[in-house]
Each structure stands twice: as C-alpha cells, then as structure tokens.
Amino acid sequence: MKRNSILLLGLALVVVITSGCANGYRGYGAPKEIIIDTKGVDLDAYYDDLGDCEQYARNVDVGSETAEGAVAGAVVGGVLGAVLGNSDNAKRTAGAGAVVGGVKGNQSARHEQERIVRRCLSGRGYRVLN
To answer: How many other C-beta atoms lie within 10 A of the C-beta of residue 58?
Structure first.
C-alpha cells in the first residue's frame, strides 16, 4: 500500500507540473493566436501592444496557482478519504485531490492570463473577436 501511495503522489506531481506544458498555450497563457478585426489597424502598432499585454499577463504566477490548487485538493481529498475510510484511503484520495486541484489551479491561472491579454487589447481600442 505504501508503494502505491508514493507512486500516486509522484504521478500527481508529474501531472500538475506538466499540465500547462502541452496544452497549446504560449508562456503567458493566451491561445496561439488572438483574432482581432484588422480593418483600419496598424499591425505594427498592434504587435507592439500585444507584446505589452502579454507582459502584463506574465504577472500571473501560474506555478503558485497550480501549487495552491494541488494543496487545497489534497486537503479536501484527504479529509474526504478519512471520513469515508481509513488512513490508506485518505492517502489515495489526497493524491487524487492534489492532481485535480493542481490541474484546476493551473487552468484557472492560464484563463486569467488570457483574460488579461484580451482586456488589455480591448482597452487599447482593438476589437477582439475570439
């Protein structure tokens, strides 16, 4: 049982760390391409503004949000496991909770980054279509 718990926690850590790496996001969390209405837009100025907006989005700490989600998920999972069973059950559900919580925290942070980029571009006068 102890070996299974260690393997589960190791797997949880790997999933949490890599959950944002292969999801098609750039470093700041926005989709690969933001679509704007380009009619009457100076594209050189747009790309400068996009770079500024992406820099603002990088202020969201994805790693911390992921870790906080993992800890919260582990706590909830552990409590549920303890209530519903024994200590082995609590360990397993804590591991599962860590995975789910970490992924949710990661996704939440990346969506916040995306919202920042979109709001920033809209605030600079661009009509964001997606």
So the answer is: 14
Q: Which two tokens stand for residue 23?
A: 């999801």
Residues near 22 by beta carbon (within 8 Å), at least 6 away in sequence: none
Please state, as a whole number, how many other Cβ atoms lie within 10 Å of the Cβ of residue 120. Answer: 19
Q: Specify which residues 128 forms β-bridges with.
A: 36
Rg (CA), the chain: 19
pTM of the predicted protein model: 0.67
Contact, 67 vs 40, CB < 8 A? no
Q: Which residue, chain included where needed, has tokens 């260690």?
A: 6
* Half-sphere exposure in the Cβ direction for 101 (13 Å, CA): 22
Q: pLDDT, tens digit, for every residue of 58-115?
A: 999 899 889 999 999 988 888 888 888 777 878 888 888 999 999 999 999 999 999 9
CA distance 130 to 124: 16
Listed residue (67, 118, 127, 72) closest to 97, CA to CA: 72
Backbone angles phi, psi at 36, to 5 degrees: -120, 160
